[in-house]
Every structure is written in C-alpha cells, then in structure tokens.
C-alpha cells in the first residue's frame, strides 16, 4: 500500500530525513519509534504533504501511485489520514461544518454523491459512539477550548468519518491520560480492517499495549536503524534509546 | 527687550497655521528662551528654533495634542519665559531626597544643570557635560520634526548630561538622576540627556524629579538613549512634583539587535504633564517594554503618549499602563503600535486599564494599531471601570473597613506595574507613597 | 511563486460580477454643481419650497466646508464639478404599481437576481429599488399599508407625508453635519422612507436596493427610517454598480429615529464596484449613517458587510439618548487589491444605563488598507454606561495593512468600557489541517474566513447571510500569502 524508498527531506536547508525505506501492506500496523528529534513527526508531515519540508531525494508510492507530487488535499482524498500531534484550532468553524465540507469533498473525489444533512448526521451519530465523543463538542468551534484528550478523540472521530486507507497517528498518545488512551486506541482498533493500514508514530511503548503493532521500526538521525516486532518496543521501554544510539554512532561512517 | 526684538525673529512664517492658537505665548516663549541662552550649540539650537517655528505650539486641533491644551496652560501658569538658572543645592538636600536604602550612583541636577560636585560615579561609567562631548549626535534619535517640544528643547537647552556606559559593563546598582526644580516666576527648565550604552552593557537609570517649593515652572525634557547590541537598559521615571508644574518629557530610544529596553513611568502629581515615549525597535530579537502608572488626584492632568516602531522582524514589544483617577483629574492615554511591512514575526501587546473614583474625572484613551505586515501577533485592550463592588463587599464582610478595603484593591490594581520595578529601594519608596495616599482615601 | 501565492494571484484578479451596464433613455441634469442645478433637481421633483430652501441652505454650508482629510485613506480628490447630480431612467410617468414600471428596468434587476415581481419574491421582503438617482419601484406597498406602515420612495414621501418628512429630515444628521452629508442634503435625489407606527411590528424585512448605472453620475440617496414607540423593523440595504474606469461618488445619508421601546435593525451588504485589480475605477463610498435612540429602552443595531467600493468612509453610529437604550454595531469589512476602507462606529452614551456593543472584523488582502476607527463616548450624565468592543483584523499576504484607531472618551466614573483588538493572519497550519482532511485551499480559506466573521454574519437575516457568505468567499477565496 505504501512504499517509501530512500526518502530524504530537509527544512530550511537542514536535512532531517536521510534515507528512509519502508514497506507497509494492507492489514498491517507499523510503529515508528525513536528518541526526540529523530525525524518521526517529519516523516508523518512529509507523507501528508506539509510544504515547509523539502523532499530532496527518494520516492513514495501510495497504492501503487506516486504520492509526493500530490497536494495535501489530494492525498487526503485518496485515503491518507494524518492524526495531528497538535490538532489545529479554527475559531468560528464547528467540527460538524468542517467535517461535512471535508467529507463531501472527499466523496466528490471518489465520485460519490454528497451526503445530505440527515444522512450526514446519522453517519456522525454512528461514528461518535466509536470514540465516545459528545455531540455538544462537535457543535463547538473546531478544537477551540478542547482539552488535550478531547482534541485527540476528535482526530480519531474525523478518521472514522473519512474512512482512510492509511492512517498515520502522530504521537497520538502525547498528553493523554490512561482513560483517554484506552478510548482513542479502542477507536483505532475498531477502524482497522484487512484493507487498511496504520502507522503509529510514538516515543513511548505505552500506546502499543493497546494498538498492537505487527512491526516496530526505530528511527534515529533520519534513518530507520532497527526493525523488529512488538518485542523490540518492549526492549526499548526497558533499556531506553541509548543502546541504539551507541550502536549506530559507533558504526557511523561519517 | 522682548518687545524690541520680536519683529526680527517673527519674520517669515513658513506655515501660517503654525500660529493659529496662541501667537503671544509662542513667540514670547521662543524669544526669551533663545535669546537668553548662551551661544553654545548654536547651530543645533538654530535648527531647533526653525523647526519650532514651523510647527508652532500644538493646538487642540492637532490630533496628537487634542486633549492636552499645553499652550493655554503655559500662558496661564508662567510669567517669565526665561531659562531657569541653577539654584544652590546642599549635601543635606541631596541626602534627604534619596530613597531609603538607596545605593548607587547619584547625579544631581538643579533646574536641569548638572552639578558634578554633588555627584558620584562608578567604574565603567563616564559622566560628562554635553559641552564636553561635542561630537554627540544630539537630535539624531529625538528628532525635532517629530514633536514641537523636542524642537523647543533643542532651541533652548544650554547644556546637559552625557552618560556613557562601557561595553560589557553591567552596573550592579542603579544610576539616580536627582533633578531638583525651583524657579521664581515660573521659568523654563530644559533638561537634555544623552545616554550611550555599549554592547552587552546593563544598567538601571532612575530619573527622579523633585520640586523644592510650590511655585510653578515648566520642564521641557528630552532624553535620547542609544543601546548597543545585547544591551539591557531600564529607565524609571518618577514624577512627583508640586501641583503647579507643567512638564513635557520626550524620551526616545533606539534599540539594536538582541537588546532590551524597559521603561517605567510613574506619575503621582503635577498640574499638566505630557510624556512622549518612543521606542524604535531597530534590531531583530530586540525587546521593548513600557510600563506606566498614574495615580491622579486634585486637578492633575496627565497625558501619556507611547509609540513603538517595529522596524525589523522578530522584535517584541509589551506595554501595560494603569491609571487611578480621583477628584477632578484627567487622564489621557494614547498608545501606538506601528508594525512596518518588513517587520514580520512581530509580537506586540498593549494594555491600558483605568479605574475612575470620582464623578468629575475624565479619561480619553486610544490604543492604536497600525499593522503593515501579516505574520504578526498584535493585540491590545483597554478598560475603563470602577473598583469591583463585589470584592469590596467581600472584604467588608470580613471586617475590613471600606477605606482600607478600597486601598487594598487599588493597591492590587497598581501592583501589577509596581512589580515590574526590580530596584527594591525605589519600589519600596513608591509603594510607601501610594500607601499614604490610599490611607487618606486617595 | 508558491502555490498559495498563485492562488492569491488568480483570485485577486477575479472580475467583479456586477460590472455590466445597460443603455436606457435617461433624464439627466447637466454636469456640474451650483444653485441652479439644485433648483433644477428640486423643480424636477416638484418639491415644496421649504425643501428647496433647506437644500440651498445645505449647499451654502457645504460651500464653506473642506473635504475631510483625517481618515486613513489616500485618493485623488474628485472634481465635483465634473459630476452629474441627477440621472433618472425615463419612464412614462411615476409608476403607480409594478405593471407600470418599464419592463427594461425590471430586467436590469432580474439580472442582478432581484425580482420585483411580488409573486416571485420570497415572502417576507418588501423592496424599494433605486436606480441612479431615483426610486423605480416599491413592492408590497399595500400589504404594509394595512398595518399603517409607510414604505415608499423619498420623493413620494415628500408629497404624501410632508409632516413626517418635515419633522424628521435632518433631525439625526443635520445638514451641517459634515462635508458629504451637507453635499447630500443639497443634491439628494431620492431614497427610501419608512415609518412604522406605534406598537407595530413590521411583518417583513424592508429592503432598498441601490444600483448606479449611468456614467459620471454621483448617487446621493437619503434614507429615513422612523420607528415610533414600541415598534420593530428590520431593514436591508444592498448595492452594486457597473464597472467603469473612472471613480464614481456615492454619498448617501441614512437617518434612523427610534422611539421608546422600539427596535431598528439595519443591515447592509455593500458590494459597489471596487475598482479593477490595478486599482483603476471603483466607487468612492462616503456615507453618513446615524441613528438616535431617542426614547427609553430603544435599540438600534447596525450590521454591515463591506466588500465593495474603492474607498469606504463610513461610520454608522448610535446616539444613545434614551435611558436604557442599546446601540450595536457589527461589521465585516473586506478589502482586496487596492481597496481602502476606513470604517467603524460611534457610540455616544447620553442616557442612563445605556449599553453598546461593537464587533468589527476586518479582513485585508492584496495591497489594500483596512482601518477600524471608532469612538465610544460616555457623557457626564450617562450613569452606568456599558460598552464592549472587539476589533479584530485578519491579514492575508504581506502587502496589505490593518489599522485600529479606537477613541475611548469617558466622563462618567460609573462607566464600564472594554476594548479588545487582535491582529492575526490565516495560519498556514490551519490551511494544512483542512487540506489534510481533503478540503481544497480555496474552500479552506472560505471556511476559516466565514468562521472568523461568524459573529457578525449571524446578525444578518438568513437570506442576506447566505449572500454575504458567498460574497466573502468570492472576494477572498485562497487569498493567502
């Protein structure tokens, strides 16, 4: 579904990603871990098409097609979803209004009829249950005055509404207490299917107790330096990242 | 003498509107002052005079002075438009004027004339008369065409103070400018100060005005400050003079990259006071902070005009002015934030809060934003209101009498500005003065 | 050029939708302004002599006045002698009902999307239509007449209701008020008049639609709304003009009188031709609007969506004279290309326990300048006055300016006045977030701008709100730098 080859990206001339290779197939869950500043969030942003990052080399195929030349909205319409680490506030625009605009544009792209208000609301009701989100919250301005947990739940709720094929969760666990973590993870798990894939970007292993990964990759200095299964995450939790840093730094060629 | 010379100097008026308000005052003022001064700085003074002629005394029609009728006030309070001579100041007077527990450099002035024999200095700090530093680019920071009183000062100042702080010199204790004022018949005092702070230097300056008696006079002060890169300068100005005093103060500062400038303007008394504070943020990562507190009673009229010019990107300004107005006092606040087109990533905040205590006070406030760049965070706010009745009642139910309760709340209101004064001796002194006022029901 | 800039380029060069003009036979005054022209206009309209006297007095006052220069706009002053002060479509005579209105004129309005046919109109809006200098049609007159509501053209009101006109004309905005108001008083040609009798709640929205068609013609209409005690009316105003290279002058006057316990809501969607993308042409919109809350417990509420005009100079104000009276001002002003707007309000608190609220949302794009200028004045006797002002500016692109000049003048210690203002730009992160959810950049901007202006748009009657939203989106879609 997603194929990343030798991806290099930089911001304002500073290289952040320095040759990422990753294959994600339908039905899989991949966890990307790594110490702070290793490039995890950059990878998520580059895949979603954030303009500040300049891709200097490599290529990315999404469902067999070239991804990097697409605008962010076209990537979204083709089924790529990024759950933001820091969801954005938009004053005066309700989540409902926002999502209806988004969903109908995505549907238009897929050649589907726009949903009328009644159908949209019933779809919303259905998906709201998944993440235990309150309807009152959805009539308020998007993310404005939401707690950290509410923002993250809103992200997963939007994911449920837009039904992406590939979901990238960028540090979705940050700022969540244990209850919120459970609710958010449950939502993600319920949305999983053999046709979709998930990339979980996280610093801590904690989230992976709830969203069980098939593969765990460690990102350090802009490269995937180690890959394994969920046991690797546990090892990292126990030993920290230093041993990997040492391993990499000692074999570094430059 | 004045009468005979008037014609000579009155000659061509470039702008006929310049004299629409008060011809007499204006010409007597300039004539007496200019003619009576010695011939030092003659060319500078000549330029100042011409500029003042072109601008004239501001009228109420001038947007910048619309609430503060200085021309009329000068005419009614002053009898002699002559430069004030220095008067004798004793060691004892100096000593008793110092804030309790004050330690630092003391520079003494009498009617704007610097008195070296009563002053002290410190290592890394050069103190001179302006006449000893002829190459000082006076007027390059406080420009004569920006304000008629700057022009008037430049036309009429006779000498002044040149302060220079060495590179990398961080003064541990503050510099106190102790300015004694006393004239007979209401004369004009024109202090002129130039402060030069080297790169990476740090200093706190306290500019303290004291009246020696209850007679009127007019202070027209200009202070120019040039801070080097990474310099950190704090300037406190304390106005606590008699209630006949008319004062116009122009403080203009250039703030270079990574430098910080903090101003605190405290006004406790006077007749009519106008303070113009101008911050030119010339360097990126520079920070300008402006704090003000005006506690007005009687008929005191205070007009604070501040102007921050964001000339480069990544600079920050922050402003908080608070006022408490009682009796028949009048407060004017005009804060301008100007963000030029290239000044992206500017952060500018401004707040003006006022509490009105009596039926006869008037407040005119105008917080103003002029934004020419898009990637900026600017906000301003202003409030006019009363003491919180609920809070007052709450305190009273706890057994505190109304005057004390009121005092507590007003003190809390003022506290936000007072907390910005880091120098303990000064803060304690002001707190003390305010407490006295609050105890006597303002 | 970044993608955003490209979109900005594309959209700022968008053509004005209503820029066409129509040739019809017109009855025109000669060019120029002098006493004779004023007499000519007055005679043309068969006015009583007192009104001619009033005009001439205004003209004398005006002659001694200077064009104001204090506002934050730059323009080349207009040669007022090169303008035409009266232009009217030639109709057989004054139409008594719609059947008598020239079908050609009706067609003009159909093209603007305004149907004069009562059957086709949505129920609930009566409309007075002003083309160049005169009112061409008023709908629903009879329905309103049954309730005692007078809604007609100004000229008709002068003939049919002279006492009311005599009593209220110039009572809120004296003919000596300011340069443009005095000019209007001297040369106004038509406009709308509305009177709601005591205790009547007007059952439908009343509306005036202004259209400038003729070239070299100034439009000087006058609107007078009188709401008697305990009445209610909601009034809408819309406007467009053809696209012409030269600047055209619109100097209107709107006066509102609100009696005790009455309420007047006045909404404007202003879409005069703003000039082309290079700043050529466009309307000079120098308008004086003021209402007086004369009676206790009265309320006047101004809502404006300003998207058009090359220059806007407009301060709809409230004189809060009655005790417990309320004034409100809600404004969205959008400027793009070389447009300049200096707009805001005045809230003059005179009565006791008066309240005012100001919500101003400025949006600047292109090379435009957008200023808020407002005054909150609390007079000495206005005990317990309350004001809250919120003035926000949104900038798009780094060639434009946003300025705030609030004057707060308080002479009563029981006043509580709060003013807040912020300046921000549409965040790239906001747009990216929308993009990531599949929303195209233009739609994202429309969404964000409408969200930003929501508090004001919510004040508009439903039908108008939709039009205003579309207009905002149209003016600004994707104008992100």
Describe what this molecule looks like in 3D:
Helix content of chain A is about 40%, strand content about 30%. Chain A is of the alpha/beta class. Chain A folds into 2 domains: about 1-70 and about 205-255, 3-Layer(aba) Sandwich (Rossmann fold), CATH 3.40.50.300; about 80-165, no CATH class. The mean pLDDT of chain A is about 90. In chain B, the strands form 2 sheets. A 10-stranded mixed sheet of chain B has the order 2-1-5-8-10-12-14-16-18-20, covered by helices on one side. In chain B, a hairpin with a 2-residue loop joins strand 1 and strand 2 (about 115). Helix content of chain C is about 25%, strand content about 35%. Chain C has helices at about 5-10, 35-45, 50-65, 105-110, 140-145, 155-160, 160-170, 180-185, 430-435, 440-450, 455, 460-475; strands at about 25-30, 85-90, 125-130, 135-140, 150-155, 190-195, 205-210, 220-225, 230-240, 245-250, 255-260, 265-270, 280-295, 300-305, 310-315, 315-320, 325-335, 340-345, 345-350, 355-365, 370-380, 385-395, 400-410, 415-425. Residues about 1-15 and about 120-125 of chain C have low confidence and may be disordered. The chains are: A alpha/beta (about 250), B alpha/beta (about 450), C alpha/beta (about 475). The interface of B and C includes residues 358, 373 and 381 of B. Strand 20 (about 375-385) of chain B pairs antiparallel with strand 24 of chain C.
Mean pLDDT of chain A: 89
In CATH, the homologous superfamily of the largest domain in chain A goes by the name P-loop containing nucleotide triphosphate hydrolases
**What proportion of the residues of chain A form beta strands (DSSP E)?**
25-35%
CATH topology of the largest domain in chain A: Rossmann fold
Rg estimate of chain C, integer Å = 22 Å
Shape of chain C: globular
Q: How many extended strands of chain C?
A: 24
Mean pLDDT of chain C: 82
Helix content of chain A: 25-40%
Tally the helices of chain A.
9
How far apart are the first and last residues' alpha carbons of chain C, in Å?
10 Å
| Gyration radius over CA of chain A | 18 Å
Could you say which structural class the secondary elements and strand pairing of chain C correspond to? alpha/beta
- Return the CATH architecture of the largest domain in chain A: 3-Layer(aba) Sandwich
Order of helices and strands of chain A: EEEHEEHEEHHHEHEHEEEHH
SS-derived structural category of chain A: alpha/beta
The fraction of residues in strands of chain C falls at 25-35%
């Amino acid at each position: 579904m997603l194929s990343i080859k030798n991806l290099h990206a930089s911001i304002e001339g500073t290289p952040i990603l320095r040759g990422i290779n990753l294959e994600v197939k339908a039905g899989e869950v991949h966890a990307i871990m790594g110490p702070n500043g290793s490039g995890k969030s950059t990878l998520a942003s580059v895949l979603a098409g954030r303009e500040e990052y300049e891709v200097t080399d490599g290529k990315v195929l999404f469902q067999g097609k070239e991804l990097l030349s697409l605008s962010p909205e076209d990537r979204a319409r083709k089924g790529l979803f990024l759950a933001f680490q820091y969801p954005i506030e938009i004053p005066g625009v309700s989540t409902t209004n926002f999502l209806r605009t988004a969903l109908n544009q995505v549907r238009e792209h897929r050649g589907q009829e726009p949903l009328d208000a009644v159908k949209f609301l019933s779809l919303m009701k259905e998906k709201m249950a998944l993440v235990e989100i309150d309807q009152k919250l959805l009539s308020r301005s998007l993310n404005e005055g939401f707690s950290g947990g509410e923002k993250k739940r809103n992200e997963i709720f939007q994911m449920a509404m837009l039904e992406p094929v590939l979901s990238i969760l960028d540090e979705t666990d940050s700022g969540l207490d244990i209850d919120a973590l459970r609710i958010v993870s449950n939502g993600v798990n319920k949305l999983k299917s053999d046709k979709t894939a998930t990339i979980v970007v996280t610093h801590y292993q904690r989230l992976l107790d709830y969203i069980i990964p098939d593969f765990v990759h460690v990102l350090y200095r802009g490269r995937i330096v180690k890959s394994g299964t969920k046991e690797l995450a546990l090892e990292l939790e126990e030993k920290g990242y230093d041993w990997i840093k040492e391993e990499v730094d000692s074999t570094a060629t430059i | 003498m004045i009468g005979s010379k008037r014609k000579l100097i009155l000659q061509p008026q470039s702008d006929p509107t310049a004299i629409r308000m008060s011809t007499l005052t204006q010409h007597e003022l300039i004539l007496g002052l200019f003619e009576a001064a010695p011939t030092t700085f003659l060319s500078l003074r000549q330029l100042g005079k011409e500029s003042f002629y072109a601008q004239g005394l501001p009228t109420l029609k001038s947007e910048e002075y619309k609430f503060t009728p200085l021309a009329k006030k000068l005419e009614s309070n002053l009898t002699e438009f002559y430069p004030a001579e220095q008067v004798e100041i004793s060691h004892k007077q100096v000593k008793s004027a110092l804030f309790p527990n004050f330690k630092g450099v003391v520079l003494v002035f009498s009617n704007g004339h610097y008195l070296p024999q009563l002053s002290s200095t410190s290592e890394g700090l050069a103190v001179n008369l302006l006449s000893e530093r002829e190459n000082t680019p006076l007027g390059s920071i406080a420009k004569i065409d920006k304000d008629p009183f700057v022009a008037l000062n430049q036309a009429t100042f006779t000498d002044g103070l040149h302060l220079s702080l060495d590179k990398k010199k961080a003064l541990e204790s503050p510099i106190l400018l102790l300015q004694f004022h006393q004239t007979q018949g209401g004369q004009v005092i024109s202090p002129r100060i130039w402060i030069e702070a080297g790169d990476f230097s740090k200093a706190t300056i306290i500019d303290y005005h004291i009246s020696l008696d209850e007679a009127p006079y007019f202070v027209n002060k200009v202070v120019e400050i040039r801070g080097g890169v990474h310099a950190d300068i704090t300037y406190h100005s304390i106005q606590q003079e008699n209630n006949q005093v008319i004062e116009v103060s122009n403080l203009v500062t250039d703030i270079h990259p990574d430098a910080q400038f903090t101003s605190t303007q405290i006004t406790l008394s006077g007749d009519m006071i106008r303070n113009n504070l101008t911050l030119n943020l010339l360097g990126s990562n520079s920070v300008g902070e402006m704090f003000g507190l005006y506690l007005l009673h009687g008929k005191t009229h205070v007009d604070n005009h501040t102007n921050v010019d964001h000339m480069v990107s990544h600079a920050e300004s922050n402003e908080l002015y608070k006022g408490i107005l009682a009796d028949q006092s009048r407060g004017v606040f005009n804060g301008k934030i100007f963000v030029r087109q290239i000044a992206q990533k500017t952060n500018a905040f401004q707040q003006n809060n006022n509490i009105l205590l009596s039926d006869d006070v008037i407040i005119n406030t105008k917080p103003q934003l002029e934004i020419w760049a898009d990637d900026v965070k600017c906000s301003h706010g202003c409030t006019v209101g009363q003491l919180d009745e609920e809070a007052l009642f709450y305190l009273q139910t706890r057994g505190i009498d109304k005057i004390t309760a009121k005092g507590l709340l007003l003190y809390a209101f003022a506290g936000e500005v007072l907390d910005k004064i880091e120098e303990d001796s000064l803060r304690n002194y002001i707190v003390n003065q305010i407490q006295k006022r609050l105890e006597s029901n303002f | 050029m970044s993608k955003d800039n490209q979109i900005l380029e594309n959209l700022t060069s968008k053509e004005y939708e209503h820029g066409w003009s129509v040739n019809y036979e017109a009855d025109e005054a000669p060019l120029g302004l002098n006493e004779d022209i004023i007499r000519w206009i007055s005679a043309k309209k068969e006015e009583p002599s007192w009104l001619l006297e009033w005009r001439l007095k205004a003209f004398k006052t005006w002659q001694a006045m200077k064009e104001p220069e204090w506002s934050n706009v730059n323009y080349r002053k207009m040669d007022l002698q090169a303008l035409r002060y009266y232009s009217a479509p030639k109709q057989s005579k004054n139409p008594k009902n719609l059947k008598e209105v020239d079908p050609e004129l009706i067609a003009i309005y159909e093209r603007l999307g305004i149907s004069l046919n009562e059957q086709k109109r949505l129920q609930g809006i009566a409309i007075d239509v002003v083309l160049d200098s005169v009112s061409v049609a008023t709908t629903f007159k009879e329905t309103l007449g049954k309730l005692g509501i007078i809604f007609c053209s100004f000229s008709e009101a002068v003939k049919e209701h002279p006492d009311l006109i005599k009593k209220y004309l110039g009572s809120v905005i004296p003919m000596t008020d300011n340069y443009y108001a005095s000019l209007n008083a001297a040369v106004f040609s038509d406009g709308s008049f509305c009177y709601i009798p005591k205790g009547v709640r007007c059952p439908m929205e009343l509306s005036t639609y202004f259209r400038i068609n003729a070239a070299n013609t100034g439009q000087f209409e006058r609107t007078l709304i009188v709401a008697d005690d305990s009445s209610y009316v909601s009034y809408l105003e819309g406007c467009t003009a053809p696209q012409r290279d030269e600047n055209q002058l619109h100097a209107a006057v709107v006066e509102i009188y609100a009696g005790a316990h009455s309420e007047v809501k006045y909404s404007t969607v202003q879409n005069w031709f703003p000039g082309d993308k290079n700043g050529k042409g466009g309307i000079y919109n120098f308008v004086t609007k003021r209402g007086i809350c004369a009676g206790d417990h009265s309320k006047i509420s101004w809502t404006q969506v300003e998207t058009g005009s090359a220059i806007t100079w407009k301060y709809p104000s409230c004189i809060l004279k009655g005790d417990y009276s309320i004034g409100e001002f809600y404004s969205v002003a959008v400027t793009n290309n070389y447009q300049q707007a200096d707009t805001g309000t005045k809230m003059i608190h005179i009565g006791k326990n008066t309240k005012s609220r100001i919500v101003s949302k400025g949006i600047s794009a292109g090379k435009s300048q957008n200023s808020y200028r407002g005054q909150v004045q609390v007079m000495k006797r206005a005990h317990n006055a309350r004001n809250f002002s919120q003035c926000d500016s949104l900038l798009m692109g780094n060639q434009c300016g946003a300025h705030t000049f609030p004057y707060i003048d308080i002479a009563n210690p029981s006043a509580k006045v709060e003013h807040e203002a912020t300046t921000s730009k549409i965040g790239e992160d906001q747009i990216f977030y929308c993009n990531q959810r599949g929303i195209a950049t233009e739609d994202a901007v429309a969404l964000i701008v409408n969200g930003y202006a929501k508090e004001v748009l919510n004040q508009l009657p439903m039908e108008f709100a939709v039009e205003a939203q579309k207009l905002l989106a149209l003016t600004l879609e994707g104008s992100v730098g």
